[in-house]
Amino acid sequence: MTIKITESDITIDNLLSIEDFDRETKDRIQNSDILLVPILEFKDKKERAFYSETSNFLKFAKTELKGYTINICENRGQEKTIGLHSADIWLPILLISIDPLKDVVLPTIVSLISNYLIYHYTNKVKDDKRQVHLKLVVHDKRRKISKCLKYDGPITGLNQLEKIDVNKIFGRK
């Protein structure tokens, strides 16, 4: 199991600068609490693509998280998905816009992800050694910077993400 915290170039400003996003997409980018972001340069091209779990995860998140605005970061009708042919579970890239001084959304998101995996994979996971791959980008609304929490490991290890203090990753005490 690995958890890496790094700087991220997935920021609201960078997404808004993508020229072929239409006005509706840019509005969703600005007004979402949680944004499902595509792989921005899939196969070293200027193509964008989502992991195959994205659509199901979006439906699940909208059902489970009332009070949050959850959207997909792509022009309507232009969503492309990729299916990776392995037993691993590739979750969508999640961009969470927060105010680190007052938001406690990270444990809520980790709980949502765990519930999603249990709901969709409960019969397959019991003795399974499947790996989960997750990029959780936390965007500080005040400072307009993002940090990426990258998790690769078993479903049972996701609870380690709940222990991460968002203030510390942004250098606040």
Task: Please summarize what this structure is.
With 173 residues, the chain is of the alpha/beta class.
Structure description:
- 29% of the residues lie in helices and 29% in strands.
- The strands form two sheets. Strands 1, 2, 5, 7, 8, 9 and 10 form a seven-stranded mixed beta sheet that branches. A three-stranded mixed beta sheet has the order 3-4-6, with no helix packed on it.
- The protein is an alpha/beta fold and 173 residues long.
- A hairpin with a 4-residue loop joins strand 3 and strand 4.
**Percentage of residues in helical conformation:** 25-40%
Number of strands: 10
Largest sheet: 7 strands, mixed
The residue ranges in which pLDDT falls below 50 over 5 or more consecutive positions are none
Shape: globular
Count helical runs.
5
The assigned structural class equals alpha/beta
Which percent range describes the beta-strand content? Answer: 25-35%
How many structural domains does the protein architecture include? 1
Radius of gyration (Å) = 16 Å
Average pLDDT confidence is 87
Elements, N to C (H/E): EHHEEEHEEEEHEEH
**Distance between the first and last residues' Cα:** 27 Å
Keywords for this entry:
173 residues; alpha/beta; 7-stranded mixed beta sheet; 3-stranded mixed beta sheet; 5 helices; 10 strands
